[in-house]
């Protein structure tokens, strides 16, 4: 799986686990809702490093988890997150 597809599935997983709307996450990471939607659905052709870091900071996870270099991580609340799709 490409890193863009992995990033898409991981940000969606995290958003749903935190019971947030796309617009709420987009605001939190300083993106337009349409840009966020393109990332989450995998339509973004490339995502800037600063955006990946913003997602990691927002959710309190590692960039390695977001990019698929590891399948497990702890979020900012200490909850173990495991991607069930990996």
UniProtKB/TrEMBL annotation:
Transmembrane segments: none annotated. GO terms for molecular function: DNA binding. Coiled coil: none annotated. Gene3D superfamilies: lambda repressor-like DNA-binding domains. Pfam families: HTH_3 (PF01381). It comes from the Bacteria. Residues 11-66 form the HTH cro/C1-type domain. This is HTH cro/C1-type domain-containing protein. It comes from Paenibacillus sp. BIHB 4019.
